[in-house]
């Protein structure tokens, strides 16, 4: 089963913590998106990230995003376990469920460490 290293896991935790204390929803989404990219190889962290995204979507009363996160919660762990996830995808509905995206350089370094 794919896993992430200590550097990526620590950065994931920092991004998730920052998402809880960010001043506005856009900043919270940015931190959750960065955490999502880091979490993709790990079934548990990937699923937890989508649960946090669902919670924020509900807080923002964004029905489309919330429904999209429910779907992603269902497919996150199997996708991570099989390595079938769109690398770099930010995890939001607007990104598309299977659309790969560029990985920011700092996250790529953390994932390769």
General description of the model:
It holds the Pfam family DUF3703. This is DUF3703 domain-containing protein. By secondary structure, the protein is mainly alpha-helical. The protein has one domain (6-112). Helices cover 67% and strands 0% of the residues. It has helices at residues 6-21, 25-39, 43-59, 63-82, 105-112. The longest helix is centred in the middle third of the chain and has 20 residues, at 63-82. The radius of gyration is 13 Å and the shape is globular.
Main beta sheet: none
Low confidence ranges: none
> Total domains, how many?
1
Run of helices and strands: HHHHH
β content, as a range? under 5%
The overall average pLDDT, rounded, is 95
Structural class by helix and strand composition: mainly alpha
* End-to-end Cα distance: 18 Å
Rounded to an integer in angstroms, the radius of gyration calculated over CA atoms is 13 Å
With helices defined by DSSP (H or I, 4 residues minimum), what is the helix count? 5
Number of strands: 0
Which range best describes the helical content: under 10%, 10-25%, 25-40%, 40-55%, 55-70% or over 70%?
A: 55-70%
- Globular, elongated, flat, extended or rod-shaped: what is the shape? globular
């Amino acid at each position: 089963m794919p896993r992430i290293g200590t550097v990526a896991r620590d950065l994931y935790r920092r991004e998730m913590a920052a998402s809880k204390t960010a001043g506005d929803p856009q900043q919270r989404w940015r931190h959750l998106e960065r955490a999502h990219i880091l979490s993709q190889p790990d079934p548990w962290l990937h699923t937890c990230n989508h649960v946090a995204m669902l919670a924020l979507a509900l807080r923002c009363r964004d029905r489309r995003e919330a429904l999209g996160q429910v779907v992603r919660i269902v497919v996150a762990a199997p996708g991570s376990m099989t390595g079938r996830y769109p690398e770099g995808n930010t995890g939001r509905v607007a990104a598309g469920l299977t659309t790969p995206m560029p990985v920011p350089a700092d996250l790529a370094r953390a994932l390769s460490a």
